[in-house]
């Protein structure tokens, strides 16, 4: 990637009413080099950039303020969500999966889960590494983590370390709909709660 400092350096120089020669003399470089940098013809070496910043009294944060502002964004349209169905009337719709290895940081995955009446997901035998956070969108849920059970209504949320066995069950008369986040990602759709 070729980052362009020229416009900012020129703007500061002109705002301070300095000539190319004055800036070049202060920075200890040639007037031609300053001109080429301002026109983005060359990318300055770090020591040259530091000398120019010093000569113009520019804060380095200002010079780099636009660097890496653009980030990759993953969009999943509602009609393109990957889905997975589990026995007992549980539908997982993947909203996002950002894997740690490809992102260079902790990963995360998010699901919109629909659990039919009397349905449940999760396991009483074991948990998995990481954390989970869920919000009830519609219906009534019973969340069991370890040996404790919690009742959750629309708008209620729960977060917990997922290394304990945990089960999310529909405790209402209609479908239970939840928004659920798991970190780090489990890697396969529907492998969290």
From TrEMBL:
Molecular-function GO term, any one: DNA-binding transcription factor activity
Protein name: Cupin 2 conserved barrel domain protein
PANTHER family hit by this protein: HTH-TYPE TRANSCRIPTIONAL REGULATOR (PTHR46797), METHYLPHOSPHONATE SYNTHASE (PTHR46797:SF1)
Ranges where the HTH cro/C1-type domain occurs: 9-63
Gene3D superfamilies: Jelly Rolls, lambda repressor-like DNA-binding domains
Keywords from the UniProt entry: DNA-binding
CDD domains registered for this protein in UniProt: cupin_XRE_C (cd02209), HTH_XRE (cd00093)
Keyword Metal-binding: no
Entry GO CC: cytosol
InterPro entries reported for this sequence: Cro/C1-type_HTH, Cupin_2, Lambda_DNA-bd_dom_sf, RmlC-like_jellyroll, RmlC_Cupin_sf, TransReg_Diox_bact_type
């Amino acid at each position: 990637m070729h980052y362009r400092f020229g416009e900012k350096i020129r703007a500061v120089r002109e705002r301070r009413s300095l000539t190319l020669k004055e800036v070049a003399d202060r920075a200890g470089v040639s007037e031609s080099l300053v001109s080429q940098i301002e026109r983005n013809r060359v990318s300055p070496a770090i020591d040259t950039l530091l000398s120019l910043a010093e000569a113009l009294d520019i804060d380095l944060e200002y010079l780099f303020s636009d660097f890496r502002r653009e980030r990759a964004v993953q969009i999943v349209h509602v009609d393109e969500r990957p889905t997975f169905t589990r026995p007992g009337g549980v539908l997982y719709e993947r909203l996002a999966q950002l894997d740690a290895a490809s992102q260079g940081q902790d990963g995360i995955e998010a699901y919109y889960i629909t659990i039919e009446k009397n349905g449940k997901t999760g396991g009483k035998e074991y948990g998995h590494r990481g954390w989970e956070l869920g919000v009830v969108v519609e219906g009534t849920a019973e969340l069991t983590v370890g040996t404790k059970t919690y009742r959750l209504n629309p708008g209620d949320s729960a977060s917990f370390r997922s290394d304990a066995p945990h089960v999310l069950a529909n405790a209402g008369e209609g479908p239970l709909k939840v928004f659920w986040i798991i970190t780090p990602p489990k890697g396969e759709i529907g492998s969290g709660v």
